[in-house]
């Protein structure tokens, strides 16, 4: 495996970890996003640039997520990017 392949695998691993962390945090707030996962199209790019797909949810879930975020107060360390 060359440097480019290792870098791509690391980006995918990082995205999978971020997705898992988000899933756990949302679960702790009583929120489940059923479509949460990695975006397949971004994985197919060459080189892959994985994105976390938040997916769709019911209005009730959206409101629960909004309440959970309202209580968070503040932004992510990277400015939410």
Description:
The chain is mainly alpha-helical and 81 residues long. 56% of the residues lie in helices and 5% in strands. The protein has 3 helices and 2 strands. It has helices at residues 3-28, 40-44, 59-72; strands spanning 37-38, 52-53. The chain has a two-stranded antiparallel ribbon with strand order 1-2. The longest helix has 26 residues, at 3-28. The protein is elongated, with a radius of gyration of 15 Å. The chain starts with a helix and ends in a 9-residue tail after the last helix. The mean pLDDT is 88.
Question: What fraction of the residues are assigned to beta strands by DSSP?
Answer: under 5%
The unreliable regions are: none
Number of helices: 3
Main beta sheet: 2 strands, antiparallel
- Arithmetic mean pLDDT: 88
Sum this structure up briefly.
With 81 residues, the protein is mostly helical. 56% of the residues lie in helices and 5% in strands.
Output the keywords.
5% strand, 3 helices, single chain, mainly alpha, 2 strands, 81 residues, elongated
Helix and strand arrangement:
Layout: H1 3-28, E1 37-38, H2 40-44, E2 52-53, H3 59-72
Antiparallel strand pairs: 1-2
């Amino acid at each position: 495996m060359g440097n480019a392949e290792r870098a791509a695998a690391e980006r995918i691993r990082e995205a999978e970890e971020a997705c898992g962390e988000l899933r756990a945090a949302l679960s702790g707030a009583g929120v489940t996003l059923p479509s949460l996962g990695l975006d397949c199209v971004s994985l197919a790019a060459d080189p892959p640039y994985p994105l976390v797909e938040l997916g769709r949810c019911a209005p009730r879930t959206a409101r629960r997520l909004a309440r959970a975020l309202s209580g968070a107060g503040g932004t992510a360390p990277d400015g939410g990017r």
